[in-house]
Amino acid sequence: MSELRLDGVSRWYGNVVAVNGVSMTIGPGVTGLLGPNGAGKSTIIHMMGGFLEPSSGTVALDGAPVWRNPDVYRTLGLVPEREAAYDFLTGGRFVRAMAELHKLPDPGAAAARAIALVEMQPAADRSIGTYSKGMKQRIKMASALVHDPAVLLLDEPFNGMDPRQRLQLMDLIRRMAAEGRTILFSSHILEEVERLAQHIEVIVAGRHAASGDFREIRRLMTDRPHRFTLRSTDDRALAAALIADGSARSVNLTAQGVEIEAVDFARFTWLLPRLARDASIRLWEVAPSDESLESVFSYLVAR
Amino acid sequence: MNSTIAMITFRAMLGRRRAVLLFLLPGALLVLALLLRVTGTADLDISANVLQALGVATLLPLLALIAGTGVIGPEIDDGQIMYVLTTPVPRRTVIITKFVVALVLVVGFAVVPVTLAGLILTGTTAGVVPAYAVAMLAGAVAYTAVFTALAVASRNAVAIGLIYALVWEALLASFAPAAGTVSVQQWSLSIADALTGASQIDSSVSLPLSLTLLATVTVAGVLLAITRLRSLTVASAD
Lengths: 303, 238
Known about the structure:
The complex is a heterodimer. Chain A has helices at 41-48, 91-101, 107-117, 133-145, 163-178, 190-196, 214-222, 235-245, 265-278, 293-302; strands at residues 4-13, 16-26, 29-34, 56-61, 64-65, 76-79, 151-154, 182-187, 199-204, 207-213, 226-232, 248-254, 257-262, 283-288. By secondary structure, chain A is of the alpha/beta class. In chain A, the strands form three sheets. Chain A has a six-stranded mixed sheet with strand order 6-7-8-3-9-10, sandwiched between helices. Chain A has a four-stranded antiparallel sheet with strand order 2-1-4-5, with helices on one face. In chain A, strands 12-13-11-14 form a four-stranded antiparallel sheet, with helices on one face. Chain B has helices at 3-15, 18-38, 44-70, 73-77, 81-85, 91-122, 128-153, 157-175, 184-195, 207-230. The longest helix of chain B is centred in the middle third of the chain and has 32 residues, at 91-122. The radius of gyration of chain B is 18 Å and the shape is globular. The interface between A and B is large, with 41 and 31 residues.
């Protein structure tokens, strides 16, 4: 059981602050590092992995500093986001090379075990250059798992994967976590994090915006006023019916349709079709106007 | 030395398109030497000129630049170095291995072919060729250390190396002799100068100073590379 602890970590580049005063503790199980693109997730992972020096604060693995301390790699595995691996090596040779670099007693067996774990045996004899994105991701996973690390960091592991590969990788990560490992992965996609992580850390614009159980944060995210744009056969009547019902905080009739701010997301989505049917109004369009992750995040930050 | 890192580095260096350059340049020199020999134009003056201008002043620094930066620069640029660096292998082992691999390539693709070309041109007349061989070996060590350090320290290692080798050593040194004091080429030449009585070789720096400077530059280069690799920052995607 290992623990990765960030204490007041900031990182700036010149005048630009990429990460600002982040403190968090990552323990066993799957933790999702969630945030929009450019929020500083990679910067944080690079600092956790010892590839970037915090401008202030400390990153420690089981109490030992990570920066300039290659010994941490005995317990830490890192899967970088970048696709580049040694394309000219076969997958098998690459993982074996990593086992040799870790000075494992039986590198061949360790490599075979890691390759089996990511189910890459059939392609182990092909060169990495011929792999698909998903296969590259898996062979990178195997290379990071070859020394059986207690902590695994994955930077945007699902990027560029097709749905089937995504499911396979999620399965693998769950299995790793069930063995008691500490796993942190970054993502800008809410659904990925929702399906995989029990615990999430939300980063927005370099700041630690939220931390905790996923359901808790999901509730924070959904229990906010939601904005929709509606178009229908009779916008005016629809607006009147919505006002009469009271589930909307504001209703605004415009030339483009009805703009509405719903207070209770669940109730509103349940109510709207009924309300329209009862008033014999046909809905042409129901479009959420602020569902982007960025707006969800900025709402969290503003709270 | 780490044999796994050496294996990966050799395969990376010899497997890519860059490898064509490694074979092309020394190949051209050997063909030229053969031509001069066959046409009978290979007297000692011309031979020494060819060895000096094409071998010591061109092929050696160029190959050292290609190999010295090539063993580690591209890996840092595309982030592959992270795989090697996420292991507990000491950073000095990584650098020393990379340096040795680069040196083997420079010896194989510059020192050996130039020496061969020299033997084709003049045999061992006046000990000119063996003198050049020893000088180039010393130069190879220093150049490789400098260029490897440059590749770890800067993303523009190739450009900086080219400017040093072509502009500083080739041009400046011929106009401003003082610049020759800070020139790996001149230091290596002083070794050749000391080893043969032939008047064709002349260097502007004294032998003891040259030897000291060559050793200093080599050690400093390797140490700098190790220090920089210890705190290597991998550019973030954000």
